[in-house]
Amino acid sequence: MSRHQQLCALLTQYRWEYYVADAPTVPDADFDALMRELEAIEAAHPELVTPESPTQQIGPGADLSFTPVTHPSQMLSLDNAFSTDEVRAWRQRLLTSISAEVLDESGYMCEMKIDGLAVDLVYVDGVLTRAATRGDGRVGEDVTANVRTISSIPARLTGRPTGTVEVRGEVFMPLAGFTDLNDALIDERKKTFANPRNAAAGSLRLKDPRVTATRPLSFLCHGIGVCEADIDRLSTAYEHLAAWGLPTSSHARLVHSMDEVMAYIDDLGARRDTLAHEIDGAVVKVDEISIQQGLGATTRAPRWAIAYKFPPVEVTTKLLDIRVGVGRTGRVTPYAVMEPVKVAGSTVEMATLHNASEVQRKGVLIGDTVILRKAGDVIPEVLGPVVSDRTGDERVFQMPTLCPECGSELKPEKLGDVDLRCPNRRSCPAQLRERLIHLASRQGLDIEGLGEKAVDAIVAGGLVTDEGDVFDLTADTLLTCSLFQKTVKGADPVLSKIGAKLLAQLQEAKTKPFDRYLVALSIRHVGKGVAPLIAARYPTIDDLAQASEEELSQIDQVGPTVAEAICSWFAVDWHRAIVEKWKAAGAMAGSGEAPLDLPQTLQGLTIVVSGSVPGFSRDEANRAVVARGAKATGSVSKNTDVLVAGDGAGSKLDKATSLGVQVVDSALFSRLLEEGLDAVVSGPDEGRGPE
After folding, report:
1. Of 113, 285, 512, 655, which is the active-site residue?
2. 486 has catalytic annotation
3. Integer angstrom CA distances of residue 331 from 7, 428, 574, 599
4. Which of 24, 471, 598, 622 could form a Cys-Cys staple with 18, CB 3.0–4.6 A?
């Protein structure tokens, strides 16, 4: 795999983790560095640029567990600058289209870059009718019910402006509210949030608005989309928004020179720790809307705005110990245990050290004063030691040779690997715990009752040998664990509400679609993004188990690495036993049975489904075309025969049009399935979506 392909895959995964899963696994600074590397490669090799490249995309798309909605106007992202020189270079680029005098006369609206979740509010005749997350910029997640619980967002605008008003802004959690929320979660023995941004995003995406209502969320406007009011400047728009009762920032400033822009950035950076909420930079925008329109935008960002990212926050603290943790794939990872220290708005006492080689490279000793960087990221990073503070009492970390959980001898998976792994894949308690937690996660089978506490009890009690036994749990087996017992005076314990809820959710999970099971199986590299594509091509577990690496590699976005991982997984006896146990328990409904004998109306066609399709989720639509003989892929190419285009088809529709690919409106999808392509396309233009 080329470096360009590696970067595209990594950045796509990291974007999904950050924007949809609310569980980023890399620091912002690392993501930014990878993005800049990809941009440099594509600048040197323009032929590598495609609409699917992360450099051309705004976000990862909507989470299909929420209703997808199309924004009235595209919700773009922002290009980043990491130095004041890059901000000045941004202005210089604008001067190729407009004179310095006109640009400075227009002015620059300077604002805080709040570290929260971007949302789009739509008011019709002054009444809030819809709220959505950014998603991929065209289609986001409908979070209207949850947004209505945020007190700073009015349900009705003052003065009731007529027509449609589309308001852009950031939902965030103030630092004080974040601290109070985490304290309450600790009291309830629940998992805390790593930072305010994750807390805000997680709270806004809760399935129960009543719980969202208990979270201390707030909102500030940072832009406007469709608006029928006569507005010629961004600064004027903010005045209108404030007059209508919408919250705007008191820290926004209109200035008329780059020296004033730099002064604003410096002042905001000096005051960032005094603010009530986290920020990770400043945003600079051309104020006059007609100039904005003249400057235009790239596929992902307006040319008339730039986001200056503050350097990551760094602090020092004492490294008390280095311990190791074991993940679900057996990887053994050292992590730092430190004296608690507040950094980037949250208290940190642990940080990853990646592997033994990284510990050695950084030169840290147990007992060192270390430099810690966090800047609001989920995973804090130890940068290195403060050597001048050493007393001579520090000691070298020794990587264990045995698994701390099961005592197995640690070793690399293959020659040359820097990571050590526990080879006791099936029975190591740590790996089993992590796999069960992954199985129950939202991207897996979404079993809320199978959280960390329940998993710990089940594993510690020996109730399961591996995840294959999870659907065989009964009230009697759960009653052997105190967590699932309810004490009745003068009688034997009975099953608690927690236990009953878990059993009910396990029954419900048996009906989840096949692609969710593919994620739940913990096959390396098979996540929520690629699983539906695999399931569309191989709709049963038996079909998939018999597929060769070569056949799997032909699936769009799979490739040889994922194909090899799938075949290797099925080559393990106890993995196949998991599948048989689940099938025997009635899970993976339909797996192992022949697909329905449907008419092959789409035989031999390669079809891409994009945007919303009435009556179908994206996964269901892909399964439907495969069941009728077509190949379902995730991206448009010269080999694509048909694009089914719904609302939010976006760049795929543009590419299909440019390549001459047949476009079928999503409203005709059911007819396409039943009668074939000829039934919905009788002429060169008939059946096409919007061009």
Report:
1. 113
2. no
3. 22, 12, 19, 47
4. 24
